[in-house]
């Protein structure tokens, strides 16, 4: 922490308001993904622009059905066109990609993931995705196993020894690993395998939280996505065990997030936009973190400098483009200011 001046990545005064240099970070969303799977290019660009309007300057894409590297050139074009018009460019997010979600047949949302017939193929595919992505790989670690009929519950997708080889394959190819996980059963093997990050992590009890903290594993708690669990339970009438599981996970989640923060787990901001959720949701997700008792300034630190430091350990903490997303009040003092942003003089 610098002795004078604002900390990098948090707010600075600008004219009549405040800016967040480099913008907010959305460490879990999906660009190029809609409710039925992949979307066309115009829709993907609309998703990027929606994220920009929400003040997001850096995205970690947590799995997309198609390669969206073409977007990087479009973002550069859009920024230089705005500069040529004499306008200060609206912030457009930079995207760090995790390649494709890796799952097994009938063990994730249809149309989203690359589905591996044989679980033993995971390490090989992880290596391939690591080489094709931007430094991250996304593994779907658990999902409902409907083959169990009325007893169906959330269950792990991969044997523990396969996860060990898969995480090693990612690391050997220069990528870190994050994993989708809802259940407690999936967490131990993921932690032991050496994952770098966990998405949702709703199954973590006190023992897992202590281990996650000790190993420096980051967690994206996605409170608004977990708020959908009661609806999942309602829709799962044929699967009463699963319905009870997700109901209990939802009920415990706010306190669990508070416990993770208290234990020193690095919490990452993530909207889980894409699929069913909109790409301008992140400010609302951050406001939901108040339910875990976190102060506004701490939430904003986690959603900016802390997340950048984790995602870009080699970076200098600043954004690449100027950020004329103006907040009328300092969001570090009152997080609701994130909902009142202006760009080019227009309220968003
Ligand atoms: Zn997701």
Automatic annotation (TrEMBL):
InterPro entries: Amidohydro-rel (IPR006680), Metal_Hydrolase (IPR032466), Metallo-dep_Hydrolase (IPR051781). Residues 19-310 form the Amidohydrolase-related domain. Keywords: Hydrolase. It comes from the Bacteria. GO terms for molecular function: hydrolase activity. The keyword Lipid biosynthesis does not apply. PANTHER family: ALPHA-D-RIBOSE 1-METHYLPHOSPHONATE 5-TRIPHOSPHATE DIPHOSPHATASE, AMIDOHYDROLASE-RELATED DOMAIN-CONTAINING PROTEIN. This is Amidohydrolase family.
């Amino acid at each position: 922490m610098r002795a004078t001046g604002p900390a990098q990545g948090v707010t600075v005064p600008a004219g009549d308001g405040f800016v967040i240099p480099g913008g907010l970070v959305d460490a879990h969303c999906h660009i190029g993904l809609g409710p039925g799977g992949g979307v066309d290019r115009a829709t993907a660009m609309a998703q990027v622009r929606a994220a920009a309007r929400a003040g997001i300057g850096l995205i970690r894409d947590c799995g997309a059905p198609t390669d969206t590297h073409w977007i990087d050139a479009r973002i550069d074009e859009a920024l230089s066109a705005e500069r040529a018009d004499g306008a200060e460019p609206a912030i457009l997010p930079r995207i760090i990609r995790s390649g494709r979600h890796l799952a097994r047949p009938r063990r994730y949302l249809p149309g989203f993931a690359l589905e591996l017939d044989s679980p033993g193929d995971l390490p090989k595919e992880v290596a391939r995705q690591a080489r094709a992505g931007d430094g991250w790989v996304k593994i779907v670690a658990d999902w409902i196993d409907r083959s169990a009929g009325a007893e169906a519950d959330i269950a792990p997708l991969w044997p523990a020894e396969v996860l060990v080889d898969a995480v090693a394959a990612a690391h050997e190819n220069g990528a870190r690993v994050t994993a989708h996980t809802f259940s407690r059963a999936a967490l131990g093997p993921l932690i032991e395998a050496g994952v770098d990050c966990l998405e949702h992590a709703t199954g973590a009890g006190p023992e897992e939280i202590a281990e996650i903290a000790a190993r420096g594993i980051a967690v994206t708690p996605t409170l608004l996505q977990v708020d959908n669990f009661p609806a999942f339970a309602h829709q799962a009438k044929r699967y009463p065990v699963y319905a009870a599981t997700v109901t209990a996970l939802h009920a415990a989640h706010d306190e669990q997030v508070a416990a993770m923060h208290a234990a020193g787990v690095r919490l990452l901001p993530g909207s889980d936009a894409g699929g069913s959720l909109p790409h301008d949701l992140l400010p609302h997700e951050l406001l939901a973190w108040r339910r875990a008792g976190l102060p506004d300034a701490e939430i904003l630190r986690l959603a900016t400098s802390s997340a950048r430091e984790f995602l870009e350990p080699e970076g200098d903490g600043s954004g690449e483009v100027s950020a004329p997303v103006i907040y009328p009040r300092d969001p570090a003092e009152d997080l609701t200011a994130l909902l009142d942003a202006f760009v080019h003089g227009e309220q968003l």
